[in-house]
Amino acid sequence: MDDAVFIVGAPAGVVALDIGHAGAPAEHDRHWHGLGQLQVILHGLMAVDVGDGWWIMPPGRVGWLPPRWPHAGRSFGAISVLVLHLDDERAKALPPVPSVVALSPFVGALFQRLRDIGDGDGHSEAGAGVGRRDRILDVLTDELTLAREEPLHLPMPADRRLSRMCQALMEDPADGRDLDQWAVAIGLSRRSLTRHLVAETGLSFGRWRTQARLMAAVRMLSENRSVTEVALTVGFDSVSAFIAGFRRHFGTTPARFLRGRGLPGDVGEVQRPGVRSPAREGGE
């Protein structure tokens, strides 16, 4: 934690934030918070480096960072996010490691209610108090412990040579070098590369590269690029192969994946005027 900056002044209640801007990705240096953080992305997409890998957070998911967990972030375009801070006692009900879970309609409604209530300091909804907020928080944390974890994590190896390879594949997911070529490039035998990568990430070379390509695809789809463009840019041989791989990993098509599952009135089926939906081209 020595290389992370401590961010102070975390408020109680649900806080709505606008992060980043249109254009190039915005980098957020490594830091940590004294309180746990639940984050719901309303619009846009964020990637969070939690030390042992990256979590991708599109709309309709809940991201969890335990108290004092060092992390860095990268936001792609303009982002709207709701942040809920939890103290140590309440954070004990949630996993001790970062995660991203599906946002059910019920959990979304609980976040909406907490936002409506406010933090009980005089700016809250009339008649609502700390007691009501605490009861809702009890239900919320209970629901989140049962929520399905989303396959949005890309584990990163600690080994310097493997890390160099993985970083290169993240920067250029269409890089077509095979296992033997990468082994030569980073100075390992094919067998050693395979053994160490599985030991550190739990994934074979082929599975890790496919997962990296799918993570890159989620980011590009969130930028309203067409399914065809995304499929070819991240290195799939065809659109059909991309859609099949996407469905195997995420359990749904690219088009349906980014359709909102967020809070009432914030994220839904409504398409912003003048923006082409990736759902219109394949992947439905």
Notes on the structure:
The chain has 284 residues and is an alpha+beta fold. The chain has 2 domains: 142 residues, Regulatory protein AraC (Jelly Rolls), CATH 2.60.120; 122 residues, Arc Repressor Mutant, subunit A. It is built from 10 helices and 9 strands. Strands 1, 2, 3, 4, 5, 6, 7, 8 and 9 form a 9-stranded mixed beta sheet that branches. The longest helix is centred in the last third of the chain and has 18 residues. The radius of gyration is 20 Å and the shape is globular. The relative contact order is 0.13.
Query: Structural class of the secondary elements?
Result: alpha+beta
CATH superfamily of the largest domain: Regulatory protein AraC
Secondary structure: number of strands: 9
Q: Give me the number of helical elements.
A: 10
C-alpha geometry:
globular
What's the architecture of the largest domain, going by CATH?
Sandwich
Q: What count of domains describes the coordinates?
A: 2
The residue-averaged pLDDT reads 82
Which range best describes the helical content: under 10%, 10-25%, 25-40%, 40-55%, 55-70% or over 70%? 25-40%
Give me the Rg, rounded. Answer: 20 Å
Contiguous low-pLDDT stretches (5 residues minimum) are: 119-127, 264-281
SSE arrangement, N to C = EEEEEEEHEHHEHHHHHHH
Strand proportion: 15-25%
The biggest beta sheet, please?
9 strands, mixed
CATH classification, class level of the largest domain: Mainly Beta
CATH topology of the largest domain: Jelly Rolls
